[in-house]
Structure formats: C-alpha cells, structure tokens
Amino acid sequence: MWVRCGAPLAVAMVLAGCGNPVHSHYSVKQTAPCLRKLGYAVSTNASKLGPIEAAATEGALLAKERGNAVRVTFSQNSSEAGNVEAAYRRFVSKKLRPHIDDVMLSQKNAVLLWTITPPKDELNRVLGCLK
User: Looking at the 3D structure of the chain, how many domains does it have?
Assistant: First the structure.
C-alpha cells in the first residue's frame, strides 16, 4: 500500500514546493558554502575574477575542481543576467566562441560559464548548489 500511496505523495510534495526549494534569487552568499561542501575551491572576490565578473551587480564566484572550473555571476534579475550572457558572448576567447552554448548556462539571475563542457553529474551538482 505504501508504494502505491507513496509515489503520488512524493510527486504532490514536489509540485507543492516541499523538498528541494526553488529559489527565485540566487546569491554568492548562499551558493558558495554549498559548492565548498562538495569539494570545490571557491573564490568570491569578484574584482579579481575578471571584468565581467567584477561588473556583476550581485557578485560572482569561481569554483574549481580537478579538470574544470565554473564562473558564476549573480545579477539583480534575469534581464541583467541576459546582459552578462551577451558580454560573455562578445568577449569570450576566439577558441571558446564556437562552443559557448556548450559551456554557458543561465538560471534566473545567475549565469554559469565553465572552462570545458561539464559532464551531466557535475552540471547537476552545481545547479543544485544555486541558492
């Protein structure tokens, strides 16, 4: 009986917003500790990460793990995040430009830019830390 009742209950909880919360505004302050717990080396000094990161209105971070790194910029809203995406597209290296859609992702007010295309499990870990 539990299996038949449990599955619909789990679906209902997710749809009702229980379980993993969906944040409407991501921040450096909430995201960085989660990434550190997962073993990433995290730098939150946006002014030392680059001009685009330094200009991000809500800050930025660089999270490194063996073999890859991700820059996450935080804006006030998704419209500003779109401006950050445009800046990355304009100023990214010529080598990376053809692959920008493989390494860049926007989630609400955050823009993520990886060094190399992240494997699905890495992508999910980082997205799970956006808070």
Answer: 1
pTM for this model (two decimals) = 0.82
CB atoms within 10 A of CB 101: 9
Q: Indicate whether 15 belongs to any domain.
A: no
Per DSSP bridges, beta strands 41-43 and 68-74 are: unpaired
CA 100, 116, 112, 125 torsion: positive or negative? positive
d(CA 55, CA 73): 9
- Per-residue pLDDT tens digits for 89-101: 999 999 989 999 9
Q: At how many degrees (to 10) do helices 28-37 and 120-129 cross? A: 130
pLDDT band, very low/low/confident/very high, at 22 (cuts 50, 70, 90)? low
List all residues 6 or more positions away from 100 whose beta carbon is below 8 Å from its beta carbon. Answer: 88, 89, 92
Domain that holds residue 44: 21-129
User: Is a pLDDT exceeding 50 seen at residue 6?
Assistant: no
d(CA 58, CA 29): 10
Q: Which residue has the higher pLDDT, 18 or 3?
A: 3
